[in-house]
Amino acid sequence: MYGLYSSCHLGENLALMLTEAGLPFEYIRVKSTEYKELKVRLEEQNIFSTTVPVLEIDGKFFSKTVPTMRYLARKLGKYGGSTDEEWQHLDALADLCNDWREKYCRLDELNFPEDHFEKVTAGYLSIFEKTYGVHEGPYILGEEFTFVDILVYRHLCDDHAKTHLDDKPHLKAFLTAIEKRPNLVERVAFTNDEMEQFFAQAKQ
């Protein structure tokens, strides 16, 4: 898998999904000097929107985060919906996650505007608090863990929202549950440490 080194980029969503599924992978952080070569390889497979992350399986590239996660869910037979209606619901929420990301991904990660939480984050937290309260269980579909749960988790991290959940019991329960999933404990800890180092270096 190829991605960039920044909390605002999307590779960690795929990394978490692959880790949860117990699939071995290598996460290659693409440098600017390496990107041109990767771009050529993508275009050779008729992928002309050459953004990362991209997943490579047996020489075949899969681009765009959400479509790739959806592809993996269907291939694995888990992390998706059990009915067409559940799939549509998950797709709608994945689309909402993309809307959320657009609101913060171009901001300075080290210096969000003072009113960002009230103007942006609070609204999305309210929506997802209600969403996570629909079913019994900590995840969007209740006890069933899905690819959209990973997207929501990463937005809580990337939009610095994890510390704003005291009045959001359903989201707080979700956060606890996902960070305690046996296959994800080490990856979550590694990513948190990695991001702390990233911010520390950026502030220097």
From TrEMBL:
PROSITE patterns, sorted: GST_NTER (PS50404)
Pfam families the UniProt entry points to: GST_C_3
- Indicate the segments forming the GST N-terminal domain, all copies: 1-80
- Give GO terms for biological process: glutathione metabolic process
Q: Its Gene Ontology molecular function terms?
A: glutathione transferase activity
What is the recorded name of this protein? GST N-terminal domain-containing protein
Source organism (scientific name): Hesseltinella vesiculosa
